Amino acid sequence: MRIRALVLAASGAVALSTLAVPAAQAATAGPAVTFSSLKVNSGKNIVVGSTAMVTVSATYTVTKPADLDASSIQTGPVLYRGATLGETSDDMLLGDDPGTCTASSSTVLKCTAKIQFRPKGSDEDGDLVSSEAGTWKLGALAVNADQGVTWQGGLGTTHLQRRSTLTANASPEPVKKGKTITVTGKLARANWDTNTYAGYSTQPVKLQFRKKGSSTYTTLKTIKTTSTGTLKTTTTATVDGYYRYSFAGTTTTPAVSAAGDYVDVQ
User: Is 63:110 a contact under the CB 8 Å cutoff?
Assistant: First the structure.
């Protein structure tokens, strides 16, 4: 995959580039800083649809020597996979621009940054493929044009997820009390390779009912999606109310509930 990475430009200035950077180009030493209190997307999962770029915010703290000029370093959060974070890591995601830091003391910087996520098929800069959905580790890096790059991993984890959709349709409408209602639907999720939504197969989904006048859904049964993500099951009509499907989510795909479909029972 393509990696967004802070690199040392040929001029010696610090720059951000959306390029795959060979390990030989990466510096092996860096400024004597440490990172803490990294929070990406306010600690929530990162959900990306089939086409649009998603930008999330990150906050973190940098601790540095008092004699290190803050303006001489640029920093940013990193999502990575693998045992360690460093110049030989293959899977890394960084933002397009370095973070912005404010000094709270001679040794402590409070920083914010943005990280962009682009489905691969969306444009020439896209870098996400569907197989990369799941758990990512969190780290950070600091770059100094003279000293090189400092990497720090082990700052937490996050889930990078493929946005999900879910539908429900109950019929017939209206229906006589005691008769059979058929509820169909489909669970789908973003495919970052093709910029489409595709059915999510063999997933457990709950059929739920909410009585007219109530605000609470009750689970009637759990069924699994087909190989194409479709759903179909039956239940008995009792009273007026709303039927929906509800999916609890997985590591790669967020939870989602369909809009309730109202059925008039006569």
Answer: no
Q: Give tens-digit pLDDT for 73-118.
A: 999 999 999 888 987 777 899 999 999 999 999 999 999 999 999 9
Q: How many angstroms separate the CA atoms of 35 and 139, rounded?
A: 8
- Reading the block at residue 6, the tokens are 């802070």
Q: Give φ, ψ of 142 to 5 degrees.
A: -130, 140
Tally of residues, the chain: 266
d(CA 243, CA 175): 13
Residue type, 261: D
pLDDT at residue 25 greater than cutoff 70: no
Would you tell me how many other CB atoms lie within 10 Å of the CB of residue 23? 11
In terms of Cβ atoms closer than 10 Å to its own Cβ (0-12, 13-18, 19+), residue 102 is exposed
Residue 50 CA to its chain's centroid (Å):
12
Distance CA 110, CA 108 (A): 7
Q: Nearest 5°: phi and psi at 44?
A: -90, 160
Q: What is the pLDDT of residue 14?
A: 38
Cβ atoms of residues 235 and 177 within 8 Å = no
**Cα–Cα distance between 37 and 64 in angstroms, integer?**
15
pLDDT digit string, tens, across residues 29-67 = 689 999 999 999 999 999 999 999 999 999 999 999 999
Helix or strand or coil: residue 173? coil
Cβ(254)–Cβ(163) below 8 Å: yes
Pairing of β 91-94 and β 218-224 = unpaired
Model pLDDT, residue 123? 57
Give the whole-angstrom CA distance, residue 109 versus residue 103. Answer: 4
Amino acid at 124: E
Query: Would you say 180 and 172 are in contact if contact means Cβ atoms under 8 Å apart?
Result: no
